[in-house]
Amino acid sequence: MIVDRQGRRFRNLRISLTAACNYACTYCVPDGKRLVAAQDELSAGAMVRGVAYLIEAAGIERLRITGGEPLVSPKLEPFLEGVSGLGLSDISLTSNGQLLSRKLPLLQVCGIRRLNISLDTLDPLAFRRLARGGDLATVLTGLEQARAAGFRIKLNMVPLRGQNLDQVLPLLEYCLERGFELRFIELMRMGHLAGSGVDFQRQFVGLRELQEIIGAAHPFVQAEAPVDATALRFEIPGRGHFGVIANESVPFCRTCSRLRLSSTGWLHGCLSSSNRHYVGDLLDKPRHQALPALQRLLVKALADKQEVAFSGGATVMKIIGG
């Protein structure tokens, strides 16, 4: 097992099925252009082998499928069919929900039971302004269908000053009424925001302000969360839970167990590091050749992790997933 001096190891793999996305959210893409699949993206078969090798080489236990937007990828079905038989303790998927209705049968057949859906507002006009793509009503319909089918659902919201801060309470109420758990994600210093202090600070909304907004409407208490969780969890007694991924306010780097594999075959041990490690060429090699080389790269990827706090990174989040 590969462990660093802080006792951290890789338990959670987040794999970007594709860089393509049908949205161009303002906090992710600066120019409003939707991202497209890279010409050198891995095949579904190579990605399945990558997950299998990482289970053995790193001790990966849980998998999150991300993007881009994974539901737009033609690799989704063969990839799900492949990884569903690898013995992982949990497989979940992060999506913007635009194609959720039509993909629910596939997700059910392949054993997906947990969904994280990104939704920043319940206002249709604000939705179009923030996402620069898609249709709010279609997303909400997909969520209701997923709920009826028994999926466990979390919604992810990035609160932004001057854009959707007025949606904190409406989205929270929407989730509490349906048994969803809302996660507020503090804006991250990534991509075009990494070196833009003014833009970042102008939009940033932190943990304390969110607690004040919510506390004015709902009494809440802190709840338990796994030791390597990214989110601080809170309970509104008798109603439900919400969480805050407070990467700026309360850094969680000391307990991070996440590893990311991009759709083009690069391992990222830390979002706050510009280092990346190419494994695409290893995924066509037999196990006895691939595993020793992969383990050497995993040692380097684990060493990339920040010791205390996230400090920002130039990588575009949509390329390596959430």
Would you write up a description of this structure?
Strand 5, helix 6 and strand 6 (181-185) form a beta-alpha-beta unit. Helix 1 crosses helix 9 (287-303) and helix 3 packs parallel to helix 5. This protein starts with 11 loop residues before the first strand and ends with a helix. The protein contains 10 helices and 12 strands. The model has no long low-confidence stretch (mean pLDDT 90). With 322 residues, it is an alpha/beta fold.
In short:
With 322 residues, this protein is of the alpha/beta class. 32% of the residues lie in helices and 17% in strands. It is built from 10 helices and 12 strands.
Characteristics of this structure?
322 residues, alpha/beta, 12-stranded mixed beta sheet, globular
Distance between the termini: 25 Å
User: Shape from CA axes?
Assistant: globular
Number of helical elements: 10
Task: Kindly estimate the percentage of residues that lie in beta strands according to DSSP.
Answer: 15-25%
Tell me the series of helices and strands, N- to C-terminal.
EHEHEHEHHEHEHHEEEEEEHH
What is the tally of beta strands? 12
Going by helix content, strand content and strand pairing, the class is: alpha/beta
Low-confidence stretches: none
| Major β-sheet strand ordering | 7-8-9-6-5-4-3-2-1-10-11-12
Helical fraction: 25-40%
Structural Rg: 19 Å
Described by strand count, sense and barrel closure, the largest sheet is: 12 strands, mixed
Write the layout of secondary structure elements.
Elements: E1 12-16, H1 44-58, E2 62-66, H2 76-83, E3 90-95, H3 100-109, E4 114-118, H4 124-131, H5 136-148, E5 152-157, H6 168-178, E6 181-185, H7 197-203, H8 207-215, E7 221-222, E8 232-236, E9 240-245, E10 258-261, E11 266-268, E12 277-278, H9 287-303, H10 317-320
Parallel strand pairs: 1-2, 1-10, 2-3, 3-4, 4-5, 5-6, 6-9
Antiparallel strand pairs: 7-8, 8-9, 10-11, 11-12
Helix pairs in contact: 1-2, 1-9, 3-5
